[in-house]
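Here's what a typical entry looks like (Uma2 family endonuclease):
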Amino acid sequence: MSQTVPEKVRWTTSDLELLSNDEWKRYEIIDGELFVTRAPHFRHQSVIRNICTELQDWSEETGLGEAIPAPGLIFTEADNVIPDLIWISVNRLDRFMDAAGHLTGAPELIIEVLSPGATNERRDREAKLKLYSIQGVEEYWIVNRELQEVEVYRQQNRILKQVTIQSAQDEITSPLLPGFRCLVQRFFRQIGRA
């Protein structure tokens, strides 16, 4: 008696339209695999806001691009993600924006703030790292709010490789962002104690 191996279900962008429209869940597809996450922690969102503010202030001074929280990136039917934050140049924004307001190509910089849990870490450190490498993202920051660190990955031979880990007392810069300088601790500032 032979056993058949069940075929792996491959999700597509079209399938997302059939799922419930629940504002407390985020649906992402990476290489046909569906990832569902619930609404993030309040402090997770404040870190995104802080980073976005720093990048957007620099962007407004230079006019080179824009920092956008939680944009839809539709690379292919099987690769549809919502990163925490991106920075995209004016040139790429004009080229990659579709009629529905989604980006269909890679921004220069993507930032993900880690959420607790092995599945979340695997998604950001493995699946998204691989996807962003393949799609041509030039720089990827993985932000750990618990350790107050930023892991910086840059393209090297068409692969995103870790080049540094910046801690709270370090100043972060990027060759993508000429003149941008920020103390990492500014990403983690908060009001209140939670």
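The first strand starts at residue 25 and ends at 30.

More examples are in the samples folder.
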